[in-house]
């Protein structure tokens, strides 16, 4: 009897050891998978632009504005050729990107996003008048106040001037700073972004820009409850912005916006991550324009682990992203 008990105990101990070993291996495999997913995903890369170093969050009232030359940092690159070191900083940066994307010794790929926030909208003015708390509680749920309408809010005159100023910024920067123009354009379907996009980039075609913006729901503002974030019909957009291109799945009416439930920032993050994956899979461009909104920009930050630097209306900030790099790397 005692011999049987001893053998049984030994058997139980053996099974326990085997289970612990199996569980340990599973945890190691899971950790490796997690690391691989992190490396295979899209993250931002620091070390190129001043924007990455700017204050975060709204507490200090800081908002990022468009910096001269997009705030490109004056620096050397370890892969530079002797003749490149005397070129303009933007030209040196482009040469560095070409080297990074050449596939030499790595499968990582890099892109530069010119992330623009629309110019001032009618809804922005009303929120400033009544304060954020009162806007959220009452006015954001209405279509207007009797004198102004902010359903799918349009740009104010000031917002239009902000967009025109950005067109001038691009034209001067292309000559003075040797900045590359975007090779691809994406915009939110909301009217204030479509207006901003056109006012900026349709003016650059004489510089070689091929302007045909692609409308993407992924970069629209966080939707629901606020009427300013309910888009117009696809027919209206096509009629007023015939240059815009649409995915075949784009619906005629806004089927995302609801009157009672507002999307959360956290819910938008995986949608944004999917868009970034799509850009690397389907768009060969290195320099890409995204015209979007404050909430959508913050979702982009979360999806790429970028610092939460709030962006002013009518401003463009640069973000370098990489597919296949560790999170929050510098280069």
Fold blueprint:
Elements: H1 2-40, E1 42-46, H2 89-100, E2 109-117, H3 122-130, H4 132-137, H5 157-176, E3 184-187, H6 191-201, E4 214-215, H7 234-240, H8 265-282, E5 287-292, H9 294-304, E6 316-323, E7 329-330
Parallel strand pairs: 1-7, 2-5, 3-4, 3-5
Antiparallel strand pairs: 1-6, 2-6
In short:
The chain is α/β, with parallel strands linked by helices and 331 residues long.
Descriptive account of the structure:
This protein has 331 residues and is an alpha/beta fold. It has two domains: 1-40; 42-330, Phosphoglycerate mutase-like (Rossmann fold, 3-Layer(aba) Sandwich), CATH 3.40.50.1240. It is 40% helix and 11% strand. Strands 4-3-5-2-6-1-7 form a seven-stranded mixed sheet. Strand 3, helix 6 (191-201) and strand 4 (214-215) form a beta-alpha-beta unit. Helix 5 packs parallel to helix 6 (191-201) and helix 8 (265-282) packs across helix 9.
